[in-house]
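A quick aside before the break. I want you to see a complete sequence-to-structure record at least once, exactly as it would be stored in a machine-readable document. Don't worry about memorizing anything.
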Amino acid sequence: MGQAAWKGFALSLFDYKTAKFVVAKSKKVGLLYRVLQLTILLYLLIWVFLIKKSYQDIDTSLQSAVVTKVKGVAYTNTTMLGERLWDVADFVIPSQGENVFFVVTNLIVTPNQRQGICAEREGIPDGECFEDSDCHAGESVVAGHGLKTGRCLRVGNSTQGTCEIFAWCPVETMSSPTDPLLKDAEGFTIFIKNFIRFPKFNFSKANVLETSNKNFLKTCHFSSKNLYCPIFRLGSIVRWAGADFQDIALKGGVIGIHIEWDCDLDKAASKCNPRYYFNRLDNKHTKSISSGYNFRFARYYRDSNGVEFRDLMKAYGIRFDVIVNGKAGKFSIIPTVINIGSGLALMGAGAFFCDLVLIYLIRKSEFYREKKFEKVRGQEEEANVELEANEIEQELPEDKPPEGVQQNEHPQELAQSGRKQNSNCQELFEPVRATLLV
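That is the input. The structure line, written in tokens, reads:
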């Protein structure tokens, strides 16, 4: 018995099973099915393949290098600094920029600072005092400028004063700029050179035109028709970012320069072009004491006696962040097959939805449900039914003639007499049949 079962199982492996289809003559469900098929087909062709280009293998691991240079000069004449000419070495930090560089547009200078003893600036909570015991010697002033000496300095008969500190004196003055110093910075030019590479496809390109003309970069400017001349006017970048140059030059800000590479490598390399976007990254709508962008630096000197002194500068300006991103795509059979398979699966989902409508939602759903789902008895159940039928046949009595009717003991004679009667009938009707045929 076990061998027979295993033999049946082995033979069943070579059976082919196919689905049974029921054709439902319902125009509503048929129309719904065709609409779903058409919608899925348009989705695959238009969105998946034409717009998203899902037949391509995508590389997003962009390798990028950025080199920036700023050029321009500005002239100022102030009471603090006198006449002065500013060039790249003065207003660009660092001088050789990369992804981030800073252009100075305003300055507050505290000149001729020397290390010594002086009073802490007013308005710093940790530097205020009423008596000498409030100024612990050797402690630094939190958010201040130096170390406490242990003395409390008061002006006149005032009961409150500030701690004496060892620092660069005089300390920085607390003042806010009222007018940008380098107004001419709006005309400065920025050169942004960008090299990119997609390692998966071994594709490289730069945003500078490959030419042997040495004067090309000296005479060109960026425009929508001249994408491969990445020389931008500083004022234009600020305007494209939605800001006003004189406003951002007063207290500074942060501008984002976005370079995006979206390359379809199924086309020629000349079709892979950079796109530029500009926006202001700091929150220009928030008015707070920390708005804008600034930092401090100093320039150091020595006098004739060899004593060091410095000029402290609080610089306001525009910080530029160059952000590069992109992707490249090229035809590949693997994503193509995957997306076609997904489309076929969606077709099956459409058929499943129509089945639900057919057997549950329409008026004749019970009729279609009976046609779709066929009930089949198992082997054991059918054997039991046959057994019951045989038992019923055995229980039935044999056929007997009714009372008063004698059973013919010679059935062969009756059969012969029946044949004679049939032959006589045929003879009677043959002339009539002949007559009709004539």
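Two observations worth writing down. Confidence is low (pLDDT under 50) at residues 407-415, 417-438. The two ends are 72 Å apart (CA to CA). We'll return to this after the break.
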